[in-house]
Specification:
- The chain is of the alpha/beta class and 453 residues long.
- It has two domains: 147 residues, N-utilizing Substance Protein B Homolog, Chain A; 261 residues, Rossmann fold (3-Layer(aba) Sandwich).
- The protein contains 22 helices and twelve strands.
- Strands 5, 6, 7, 8, 9, 10, 11 and 12 form an eight-stranded mixed β-sheet that branches. A four-stranded antiparallel β-sheet has the order 2-3-1-4.
- The N and C termini lie far apart (67 Å).
Length: 453
């Protein structure tokens, strides 16, 4: 097998699993790399191929359709995945064209048989003959309107572009749309969190570069080996997720004996951070998750603070009825479209549809209703989503405020600012925080803090 072939096999395997099994690339890719025993160079190649082909799938499909002379729907799915990987190498990587084509043809032979290699070779040779800049012009010329053109060139479905534009427009920042779409297509850095009280603060300056905003976040040169030898006290976690969890902690002074609830805790990153904070301040945390497989992930995540955190499996929609007024602080990191993490989970942009938003907002409202019921008088609730979609953020909160006159909005922006290392460039209502990849270097987390009077 030629140099790089194993990396290409891994990338293809992940693309196939995403397509056939609705797998998540960020969860599957590391296990496939380990199983293939790839060295550092091949692991980097497999990662770039996988995420590049997923992020730019929409654009590459337009190029492939033009080069093949047929819609991509008429191309066998395994061959289409091979062509996407080949297109990424030809149009976005510094791999020699002959190597990109030859290795893709060899990959097609391994996954679909030698009878299919002629088609793959012809399409990739057609792509190779045209400069990358001219392909962009051809794709743009084939678009139907301005949004379709932007969708094609930035590899975002048009409905997502409209949703992002609306969210930015409500902040008076619609002009930032292009920068946001570009940030979605850039590989994010690997960011870590050191659980407070378990890793000395001074150690962070020795092992990595501190985050701009999170007091516990940092980015080291060799993150994965550091995580592996930390026994769970150092974890991979986006800076925006850290700020969301810390906002709940910083909302009010903590009284010993407080009971906290993470209503939708999987996979457990925020629960681990909250658990460490609870352990330092004499509180306890109940981490709830409904999906059995994710319960196991939460248990592993909170292992360093297992004496403070109890993990349970239950439907969060019933907590308001089953545990009325029991919790002093509640984090509701609600299931959402994930449009705020497209740079980390690029397949989400192709997996979600506009109709999914209505279903998710119903679930978000039910969970928020339950959380309000479970919140003690004087308690604080953080409603969080990894999506800037207005239907999943402002609309859900506004509906809850209408139904519950006992709820009051807290100055979320000021609370987050006070707990951050550096001032954040925030816009919109003072009671809500919307983070952005292009502006803050974080996932597009939405945070709203509510108090029960």
């Amino acid at each position: 097998m030629s140099t790089g072939a194993a990396a290409r096999d891994v990338a293809y395997d992940v693309l196939r699993a995403v397509r056939e099994d609705d797998a998540y690339a960020n969860l599957l890719l590391p296990t496939r790399i380990d199983r293939a025993r790839l060295g550092a160079a091949d692991a980097g190649l497999a990662t770039e191929l996988t995420y590049g082909a997923l992020r730019l799938r929409g654009y590459y499909d337009r190029v492939i359709a033009l080069a093949a002379g047929r819609p991509v729907e008429r191309i066998d799915p395994p061959l289409l995945d091979v062509l996407r990987l080949g297109a990424h190498q030809l149009l976005s990587m510094r791999i020699p064209a002959h190597a990109a084509v030859n290795e893709s043809v060899a990959l097609a032979a391994r996954v679909a048989g030698t009878s299919k290699t002629g088609f793959v070779n012809a399409v990739l040779r057609a792509i190779e003959r045209v400069p990358a800049s001219e392909w962009r012009e051809r794709v743009a010329a084939g678009s139907t309107d301005a949004d379709d053109r932007l969708a094609a060139l930035t590899s975002h479905p048009a409905w997502i572009i409209r949703a992002l534009r609306q969210a930015l427009a409500l902040e008076g920042r619609e002009a930032e749309l292009g920068a946001l779409l570009e940030a979605d297509n850039a590989a994010p850095r690997v960011n870590l969190v050191a659980l407070p009280g378990l890793v000395p603060g001074g150690e962070l300056r020795k092992i990595g570069h501190p985050d701009r905003f999170s007091p516990y976040g940092f980015a080291p040169d060799d993150p994965f080996s550091l995580v592996a030898r930390s026994n769970g006290t150092i974890r991979v976690q986006d800076e925006g997720s850290q700020l969301a969890a810390l906002a709940l902690v910083a909302a009010r002074p903590i009284a010993p004996g407080e009971r906290w609830l993470d209503l939708c805790a999987g996979p457990g990153g925020k629960a681990a951070l909250l658990g460490a904070e609870a352990e330092r301040d004499g509180a306890t945390l109940l981490a709830n998750e409904i999906i059995p497989a994710r319960v196991g992930l939460v248990e592993r995540a909170v292992a360093p603070v297992k004496d403070t955190v109890t993990v349970v499996q239950a439907d969060g929609r019933w907590y308001g009825a089953d545990h009325p007024g029991e919790f002093d602080r509640i984090l509701l990191d609600a299931p959402c479209t994930g449009l705020g993490a497209l740079r980390r989970r690029p397949e989400a942009r192709w997996r979600k549809q506009p109709r999914d938003v209505a279903e998710l907002t119903r679930l978000q409202s039910e969970l928020l209703e339950s959380a309000v019921g479970a919140l003690a008088h004087g308690g604080v609730l953080a409603y969080v989503t990894c999506s800037p979609h207005v239907g999943e953020t402002r609309a859900v909160v506004a509906d809850a405020l209408k139904r519950h006159p006992e709820l009051a909005e807290l100055p979320t922006q000021q609370i987050v600012q006070d707990s951050a290392r550096e001032p954040l460039d925030l816009a919109g209502p003072a009671a809500q925080v919307q983070l952005w990849p292009h502006r803050h270097g974080t996932d597009a987390m939405f945070i709203a803090l509510l108090a029960k009077n």
